[in-house]
Amino acid sequence: MQDIMKLSILFDYYGGVLTDKQADVCDMYFNQNLSLGEISEIMGITRQGVRDSLKKSEKILLFHEEKLGIYKKDLNVASLINKIDTLLDESDINPDYMKKIKKITDEIKNLI
């Protein structure tokens, strides 16, 4: 399986496109950190059924990220904000302007 952390994040972004059953399995696996066996008991399906559901969900999540790229764009925006913050820390900008710029970058961070 792909990196579980990345899939967990993609689930946050694109989980709404999954079926209710797929979303439940992903939530239990990614967010509640339950094992395949624990999920199979709760869902009343085999461990293989849980694994199959996760693999199918993984493909769907990766497909949507490939097409839409929202996660990648958010990472790029966060990287640019960090660069701005670094430049501000190293610059001699008027402190009032610096506070205004930092406030704007903080607002952008809260959006992503």
Describe this structure in words.
The protein is an all-alpha fold. The protein has two domains: 4-68, Arc Repressor Mutant, subunit A (Orthogonal Bundle); 72-111. The protein has helices at residues 4-14, 20-31, 36-43, 47-68, 70-90, 95-111. It is elongated, with a radius of gyration of 20 Å. It starts with a helix and ends with a helix. The model has no long low-confidence stretch (mean pLDDT 92).
Keywords:
112 residues, mainly alpha, Arc Repressor Mutant, subunit A
CATH architecture of the largest domain: Orthogonal Bundle
Average predicted confidence as pLDDT: 92
Structure class: mainly alpha
Text of the CATH class of the largest domain: Mainly Alpha
How many runs of DSSP E, i.e. beta strands? 0
Provide the domain count: 2
C-alpha Rg, in Å?
20 Å
**Low-confidence segments:** none
CATH superfamily of the largest domain: Winged helix-like DNA-binding domain superfamily/Winged helix DNA-binding domain
Overall shape: elongated
Distance between the termini: 26 Å
Give me the number of helical elements.
Answer: 6
Major sheet attributes: none
- Helicity level: over 70%
Proportion of residues in extended strands = under 5%
Topology-level CATH name of the largest domain: Arc Repressor Mutant, subunit A
Order of helices and strands: HHHHHH
